[in-house]
Input
Amino acid sequence: MAFRQAKWDEPIIFELSKYRKQGLIVDDEFKKYSEDALKEIPNDYLRARDDLNMPSLSEVEVIRHFTRLSQMAYGIDVGPVPLGSCTMKYNPKICEELASDRRVTDIHPYQDEETVQGILEVVYLLQKWLAELTGADVCTIQPPAGASGEFVGALMIKKYHMDRGEEQRTEMIIPDSAHGSNPASAVMAGFKVVRVPATPKGDTDINAIKAVVSDKTAGIMLTNPSTLGLFESKILEIADIIHNAGGLLYYDGANLNAILGLVRPCDMGFDVVHLNLHKTFAAPHGGGGPGAGAICAKGELKNYIPVPLVDYDGRKYYLKYDIPKSIGRITWFYGNIVPAVKSFIYLASLGPLVREVAEISVLNTNYFMKKVTKLPGIDLIYGRDRWRKHEVVLSFEKLHKETGVTAEDVAKALLDRGFHAPTIYFPLIVPEAHMVELTESETKENIDSLVNAYAEIIQLAYKDPEKLKASPRNTSISRLNNIVANALKTVTPSFKFISRVRSVIKTDKT
Ligand SMILES: Cc1ncc(COP(=O)(O)O)c(C=O)c1O
Output
């Protein structure tokens, strides 16, 4: 089965615009009303004196433009999105529907606590459930993304050491398979990153940890399972090494979906945990919407959690600020409440079945791995004989050497066959990598289709590599110029600029 988006090239709305076309008939009374209202605005506050540069289109043109755009887009509601690490899984529509209820979206953050008891109860229960799932003492839903949760956790570790008069603890140990946000967060919190490698079996090298640990060690940041999809088999030993040296353990919980309801990070020795609510517990990830990177802490570190927490005094729910050692407030108001509500509904609807999230995603990954690694040109590099947890990293190094076809070419060819590409070239320690994660969402039939697509691509790679390098052809926009497309992401361009570069990025000339 192929999951296709529409193939056409939609102009930007300004290119469709024709002077003085309009989609709305404004009656004279309203026109006069708005002109009078405009006159009342003091000159100093008027941003534009002339007409705003808005596109002019008829109503039907506007509707068709946006509908065509939506048909060009590929999303999780169209077909599988096997993005490892930055997982995008199907998000139950009940979560979307209830979270967009006006009783959630219309609450004003300055409303008196007495009038928002419902939403405070939701946050209170979510904090409790997340604590239960991680084995922590307290949780907050405040950080607005996974990476910001990491930053908060690193600040908590820092303040903990400073309060103990151990300012010399300036080093954070991080494996070289880590998500890039781990070292970035550690550096932002003022730590020096000490890298440790993985063993050929895919575990973090325990001897390398022993070699770098010292009285400068503030802690270690780990995700378990790792970004290789492998469970850290020596995690208890690692926890002892770090704790005995006076350091703390930070858990990057972006991979918690692999062990949800089965194993708890704090039982493995972790002191502080972030969870990607927008990955593990519903709510679209990445470009799909705002996230929530809840932070949970255990033992002494619980005293450093950001304020306010939501608490209950036996009569009402309230925002609790009285946590003397807290690192303070780290975001506005309650945090990103909508993804938190989605996660709450997701958990409430699953109840004890929540462990199936982990069981099915692990089953899906291993089924896929066993089938796909029978194909030529694919290797696993690390832990070849081990079962995976939630994701598997394939290496196309052999295929590249034998045919010249890269991991990127294979990913583009998957687009042609109606799939979203997996995460590519990550983790950095795997050459020509495809990081595939199927989550609990995908059916056996969908996984089989993905394996078949890989099989077809590899066959073509050995037969006609040049044809493959011209992929994608079936998508609205064919092969982009990576450099220009990337540069475009980093600026907020004007529509004239977009118009100009559209023609450039569509060619592979630099
Ligand atoms: C392993 C890992 N850690 C951290 C993050 C950062 O999360 P976010 O994208 O919400 O900042 C991600 C992103 O998915 C991740 O995969």
